[in-house]
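Weekly puzzle thread! Below is a chain. First person to post its structure in token form gets bragging rights.
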Amino acid sequence: MKILVTGHKGYIGSHLYKDLVDLEHEVIGIDLKDGQDLAHCLPDEEFDYVFHLAALPSVQFSVENPSYTMRHNVLSASILLEWALKHKIKRVIISSSAAAADVSSPYGMHKRMNEMECKLYSQLYNLDTVCLRYFNVYSEDQPYGGAYSTAISAWMEAARNGLSMRIDGDGEQTRDFIHVSDVLNANIFCMQSSHNFNGKIMNVGTGTSVSLNNIKDFLEKRGFTNWHRTATRQGDVRHSSADTTGLQNIGWEAEVDIVEGLKKCFL
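Winning reply:
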């Protein structure tokens, strides 16, 4: 298969690009890190599938720069969809976010607009699209401080440097943490599926939430006992959990539970 991956040098995109190459597909990558703006550099050639991961994914950056991030997060996706239609792409797989479910930031709004346009392209033009809403993606190699940084990556960074691990507020906030390997599998599953998605939105998570205090208790039993608490962050989501029945109904589910994933992160 010939595949285009946008954002192939990002955290998730770089993993996906490597996995597709390892599967012996012909893979072309485009990334803003290389000065490749989707608005100007889409190749005039045919592909079988497109994975669209290119975005400016920081919620805070979108709050501070709403029109700039809209151009990269919305207009670029729109240009990509029109290009995909003209080049007869079999399926476009869009990386969305749980932030699109309950819009409270420009970034969440941008992702929601992506989802709406994908649905429209499927209805109007018969371009098969699917939007994957990622929940809290983590892994043992997740960079600290980036747009996808999680509490787990912050704790790994603190542990590496012998620093105290921070919990905001009472620690009872819950998250659906999903290992990056499961996110990659969900993307490839959607590419390989014979199912016609028609612009559907699929949640990509484990379907199980865990509190930060639960993770703290697990890590303390493994010798990570240096913790401190700070005030609750303004606007912090209290509870987050993915309803994964959409993907489960067609044969996909996450394989790495939180205990196995934490063991990978904190050897």
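Puzzle host: Confirmed. Bonus trivia for everyone else. DSSP finds ten helices and twelve strands in the chain.
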